[in-house]
């Protein structure tokens, strides 16, 4: 059986004065296809190793981590594609709770700040609010976001100003509701983002696009928000 | 004073548009400058006569203004990204503005030969 080397970020604030990297060697079996399979195996060898995981198929977004220097989901990353030693670190820029687990409070605060729900004060129709297939198509590439935070935590603007810059995930969600024809708060949403920090910290370096495990394009969505602002202003 | 995180200054779009428009102006002038260099005689008199024409002066001055406005947005972004204490940031904003306004005045002197 093939052995693979790992170097994993360890930090338990109750015990460790400082974070450190711990080396592991794991035997890769025929059923160890994705990185998460191997991390789960590692956990049986060393049960102090902490990480989040849930659906193990790229839907829940729990197991986002920094894999060989690039953010991604362990559950959909092929182990065969990774160079050794496989270096695992927590998502950058967020406070570490323990080992690979980060505190996502700031990330979700930004997400909530864009009001991630349809605002519609018109009288309710008897059945659901319908959309035409064309209008519905506008939401493709936006609604698929699983809020794993890979994008926002790879964005330097989010690292420097996580309390003020909404970040790529939040802005993608913001555009998802701006683009929704059932939403009536477009102008308020644009007002909410017309800010040097909240939106305009994005300098379009596209780290978010590079890492998104769902293949989404926050930079494009941010560009569309700016387009709408220009259209509103001129 | 309470230490709240405050956002919502309701500006940013104009600067963002300004940065893009000034970039286009600079690109146009860069292209024009290459043509000037190709077409112009190499002598000092030739250059002097060329830059003595009003349209060249206007184009040059407009571009220089674009450079200074572009620099304002870019440098301000730098301070906003990396400088956290508000007092220091405000001081740097003001110093940048003073510097750029001085540059504008000096560029007028240079371009128009005053």
Polypeptide structure, described:
The complex is a heterodimer of chains A (234) and B (114). With 234 residues, chain A is an alpha+beta fold. Chain A folds into 2 domains: 3-102, Ubiquitin-like (UB roll) (Roll); 104-233, Orthogonal Bundle (Fumarate Reductase Iron-sulfur Protein, Chain B, domain 2). Chain A is built from 8 helices and 7 strands. In chain A, strands 2-1-5-3-4 form a 5-stranded mixed beta sheet, with helices on one face. Chain A has a two-stranded antiparallel sheet with strand order 6-7. In chain A, strand 6 (96-98) and strand 7 form a beta hairpin. The model of chain A has no long low-confidence stretch (mean pLDDT 95). With 114 residues, chain B is mainly alpha-helical. Chain B has a single domain (12-112), classed as 3 helical TM bundles of succinate and fumarate reductases, CATH 1.20.1300. Chain B has 4 helices and no strands. In chain B, helix 1 packs across helix 3 and helix 3 runs antiparallel to helix 4. The chains are: A alpha+beta (234), B mainly alpha (114). At the A-B interface, helix 4 and helix 8 of A face helix 1 and helix 3 of B. Chain B: Its cofactor is heme.
Strand content of chain A: 5-15%
- Give a short account of the largest sheet of chain B: none
The proportion of strand residues of chain B reads under 5%
Instruction: Give average pLDDT of chain B, whole number.
Output: 92
**What is the CATH third-level topology name of chain B?**
3 helical TM bundles of succinate and fumarate reductases
* CATH uppermost class of the largest domain in chain A: Mainly Alpha
Task: Characterize the overall form of chain B.
Answer: elongated
Question: Which superfamily, in CATH terms, is the homologous superfamily of chain B?
Answer: Fumarate reductase/succinate dehydrogenase, transmembrane subunit
Number of domains of chain A: 2
What Rg of chain A is obtained from the alpha carbons, in whole angstroms? 20 Å
Shape annotation of chain A: elongated
How many H/I helices of chain B?
4
Question: Which regions of chain B contain 5 or more consecutive residues with pLDDT less than 50?
Answer: none
Q: How helix-rich are the residues of chain B, as a percent range?
A: over 70%
Distance between the termini of chain B: 50 Å
> What order do the SSEs of chain A take from the amino end to the carboxyl end, as H and E?
EEHEEEEEHHHHHHH
Low-confidence stretches of chain A: none
